[in-house]
Amino acid sequence: MPDLSSFGHDAWWLMLGKSVLIFVFLVLTVLVAILAERKIMARMQYRIGPNRVGWHGALQSLADGVKLALKEGLTPFGVDKVLYLLAPIISVVPAIMAFAVIPMGPEVSVFGHHTPLQLTDLPVGVLYVLAMASIGVYGIVLAGWSSGSTYPLLGGLRSTAQVISYEIAMGLSFAAVFLLSRTMSTSEIVAGQVHHWYVLLVLPSFVIYAISMVGETNRAPFDLPEAEGELVGGFHTEYSSLKFAMFMLAEYINMATVSALATTLFLGGWQAPWPLSIWDGANSGWWPLLWFVGKMWAFLFVFFWLRTTLPRLRYDQFMGLGWKVLIPFALAWVMVVAVIREATRDSSEWTAGVILAAAGLVVAAALLFTIARVVGRRPGPAPDRPDPAAPFDPMAGGFPVPPLPGQVLPDPMLPRSTSKEAPHV
C-alpha cells in the first residue's frame, strides 16, 4: 500500500510537466465532452447533430471556442467591474486545482525518474477537493450579484443554495468510505480497493454521491439556475465572449472532477476492472491511465444521458430531495456502517464485507423508494375555479379582469357592488 512518502520528491521540471499535462487533459476533456454530449443527445433524439466542421463534426467544439473568443466582450452598465471580471476566474481556478490530488495511475518511469501519476496528495486529500468545490461557489454568487441585474441575482442565489445543500450530502457520503479505508488520502483509498471496490460495500453512499454530484454541477435535471419563468441563463446571463466561455469551462471541468472523484472513491480508481485485473500487467505501467479515463467517461456519459431523458425538477422537489431525503439517509447510513464495523471487528474480512453489503442493499432500496415518492409527489390541489354561473364583477379586485368562458358581464346600466372599491391613483 503506497503512502504519502511517494510525493514531494519530484524535480521541479517534472512537477511543472505534471501541472501542464493535467491542464491540457482537462481542456481536451471539455472539448471532447461538449462534442460527445451533442452527438449523444442527437443520437438519442433521432437527429443528426453537429456534422459540418471537421470530419463528422469533430472540430465543432473547437470552432465554438474560437467563435466565443472572437465575439465582442460586453460589460453592462452598472456592474461591479472588479467582481464582475473576477467571478469567472474564481469559478475556473478551483475547478482545475481540485484535480491535483486525483490519482490517475501508479508509479511510472519518466525519463528515468520514478513518479506516481498524480500531482500531489494530502492526508486530507478528499477534503481538499470539497474545499475547492466550496470556493467555486463564490464565483457563482459573485457573478449574479455583480451583474447589477435582478434575474442573474436570482439565478446566483438558486445555484448557490443548491450547491451548498448538496455539498452536505456529498460530504456525508464520503464518511462511510473513510470508515472503511481509515484514511482521507486519495492514493491510499485507491490502494485499499485492491481486493474489492467500495461500491460493493457502501452502495447507499455511492447512490447519494451520484445524485449529489449532478446537483453540485448544476446539470439536468437539476439545472435550476435557468428558470423557465425568467427565460434567461441564470447567474451568467450578463456575461459574453471569453468570460462566458470560462463559466462553461468550469462547468465541464467540475463534471470531470466529480466523475474522477467517484472513480477514486467507489470504483477502484485506476485499478483494472474484472476480468482485466486477472492479467498481471493490468495495474502496472501506463495501462491504469486507460482504465481511469474509461471509468471517468462512464460517469460523463451518465451526465449526458440524464440531460437527454429527464425533465427538470421543480425547485421544491429538488431542495426537498436534498434536505429531507439525502442528508437524513446519509447520516443514518454512516451510523449503520460504524455499528457494523464495530460489531464485526473480530470477524473475518469476508464476513464483515457480506454483512455490510447486505445492509447496503437494504438501505439503497429504501433510499430509491423514498426518492421516487418525493420526486413523484404531485403539488397541492389547485384553487377552486369560479363558478361560470355566479355573478361576475370584472372590477372586484380593483383592476379590470376579462371573464372566463361562460361568465357574463353585468349590465353596465345597473349599479356595481361597492364592497371592494378600486384603489385611487
TrEMBL record:
Q: Where is the composition biased (Pro residues)?
A: 380-391
State the GO CC annotations. Answer: plasma membrane
Q: What is catalyzed by this enzyme?
A: a quinone + NADH + 5 H(+)(in) = a quinol + NAD(+) + 4 H(+)(out)
Its subunit composition reads: NDH-1 is composed of 14 different subunits. Subunits NuoA, H, J, K, L, M, N constitute the membrane sector of the complex.
Belongs to which family? Belongs to the complex I subunit 1 family.
E.C. no: 7.1.1.-
Enumerate the UniProt keywords alphabetically: Cell membrane, Membrane, NAD, Quinone, Translocase, Transmembrane, Transmembrane helix, Ubiquinone
The UniProt entry lists the main location of this chain as membrane
Q: Where is this region: Disordered?
A: 380-425
What's its job?
NDH-1 shuttles electrons from NADH, via FMN and iron-sulfur (Fe-S) centers, to quinones in the respiratory chain. The immediate electron acceptor for the enzyme in this species is believed to be ubiquinone. Couples the redox reaction to proton translocation (for every two electrons transferred, four hydrogen ions are translocated across the cytoplasmic membrane), and thus conserves the redox energy in a proton gradient. This subunit may bind ubiquinone.
Query: Which residue ranges does UniProt annotate as crossing the membrane?
Result: 12-36, 82-102, 122-143, 164-184, 196-215, 252-273, 285-306, 318-340, 352-375
One GO term in the molecular function aspect is:
quinone binding
Q: How does it sit in the membrane?
A: Multi-pass membrane protein
Protein name, as recorded: NADH-quinone oxidoreductase subunit H
Which InterPro entries does the entry mention?
A: NADH_UbQ_OxRdtase_su1/FPO, NADH_UbQ_OxRdtase_su1_CS
Query: Which terms does the UniProt entry file under GO BP?
Result: aerobic respiration
Q: Where in the cell is it found?
A: Cell membrane; Membrane
